[in-house]
Amino acid sequence: MEHHAPPPNADSPDAARPLSAAHPLAGRVALVTGGAQGIGRGIVEHLLACGMRVAAMDADAEALAELAGALSAELAAEPVADNEASLPAHPDASAAPHSPTFPMLTLHGSVADQADADRCVAATVARFGGLHLLVNNAGIANPHSGPADVAAMDMDRWQHMLDVNLTGPMRMVRAAVPHLRAARGAVVNIASTRAVQSEPHTEAYAASKGGLVALTHALAVSLGPEVPVNCISPGWIEVRHLRKAAHRETPVHTDADRAQHPVGRVGTVRDVAALVAFLAGDDAGFVTGQNWLVDGGMTRRMIYEE
């Protein structure tokens, strides 16, 4: 199932400011997994604002349909004067939705299935003519998936977590690497600060994200010099407004949560998306194999019980 659409005009702290039509990424092609909601959707919106052509892949068909519906009316809209939250009209906005030049494509598929990975990469290349950026964002986002007693670990749940969060990105790279090499493109993996710090009963999630950080530097060495590979590990990011409608509950972050961060706030999806755009661009040509912590300094703060 495919939908076609573009950038947002979100009433949120993450709403991207208008970017120049001459942005260095304009005209390039990105594929974002887990792109229908949350951090992934924020990345999709930001890359579209940079003038990229973007395919959003997601296993949630309902969320994909909401994404397409929400963004399709926004792409060709003129920016509101003096409104920094407005997005510029995309240079390809006048194209028909099914035209190869229309800048947005949504693809229903799971990173847990190699056939889906192959199909979605092929569909992206067929629609847009190439691939310059793969963002491996899809994953099971529930870190508290383990039992209170490690001896009671459900190994099927353990394996499923690793299959999606760690093997999934490898499936996508496997499918995309010929196209990325041809374009001298880039890979950006989205891990978590839980790759470097933990709470109790988060073994599967921590292992999957720690493994993704390690996979990043292994791929960087294997795919260099043609394809740089980097990782972003977000901390607490507010994504409520970018979830599908049924899941936009009251924000989970409290004033105390915000105050404990050295920067005095939790993160926004723009904090992550802007770094993705940097790592996709030519200015990051000497950066590969790195894990970028986007956490407001929380992993550097000592916390003791008083």
Automatic annotation (TrEMBL):
Entry annotated with the keyword Cytoplasm: no
Keywords, alphabetical: Oxidoreductase
UniProt GO molecular function: oxidoreductase activity
PROSITE patterns: ADH_SHORT
Annotated InterPro entries: NAD(P)-bd_dom_sf (IPR036291), Sc_DH/Rdtase_CS (IPR020904), SDR_fam (IPR002347)
Family to which the UniProt record says this protein belongs: Belongs to the short-chain dehydrogenases/reductases (SDR) family.
Name under which the protein is recorded: Short-chain dehydrogenase/reductase SDR
Organism (species): Nitratidesulfovibrio vulgaris (strain DSM 19637 / Miyazaki F) (Desulfovibrio vulgaris)
